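Quick one, tokens below. Sequence please?
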């Protein structure tokens, strides 16, 4: 399943962008893997949630696979990739929800900030391709509010 999601995503990302995608995924995974180790060393980080690592990786892959559609929507509607105010609001809600489920706030914040960075890396890479004529810009995209955000929020 993860391989299928990555292959669908990778065919829409140029070769250099694939390296960025892999680095972003590695960054997010390293945060997840570091959590239990740091918790056992007396950190205030809670152990990782009960979700098995392979399921967490699949969820990360699913979210990242939506980013080309998000980029297409933003490209076609002349929207900025970054909306730091919205990101801060979303992060506050996600951290609060994570804390209510027993995860440490600093772990949750780091995890979701890495997700945001990985998502933006993909979008910036696609914008660069479209601006530079390296690949044709999208002709259409799903609606961000009604279709994409519900899929991202899962």
């Amino acid at each position: 399943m993860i391989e299928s999601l990555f292959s669908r995503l990778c065919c829409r990302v140029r070769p250099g962008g694939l390296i960025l995608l892999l680095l972003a995924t590695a960054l997010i995974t390293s945060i997840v893997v570091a959590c239990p180790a740091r918790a056992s060393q007396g950190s205030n980080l809670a152990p990782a949630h009960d979700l098995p690592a392979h399921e967490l990786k699949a969820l990360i892959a699913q979210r990242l696979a939506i980013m080309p559609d998000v980029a297409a929507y933003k490209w076609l509607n002349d929207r900025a990739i970054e909306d730091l105010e919205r990101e801060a609001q979303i992060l506050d809600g996600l951290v609060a929800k994570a804390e209510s489920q027993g995860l440490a706030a600093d772990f949750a914040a780091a995890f979701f900030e890495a997700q945001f960075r990985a998502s933006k890396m993909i979008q910036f890479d696609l914008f660069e391709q479209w601006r530079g004529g390296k690949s044709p810009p999208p002709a259409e995209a799903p609606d961000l509010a009604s279709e994409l955000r519900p899929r991202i929020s899962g």
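Confidence is low (pLDDT under 50) at residues 1-11, 36-48. The two ends are 17 Å apart (CA to CA).
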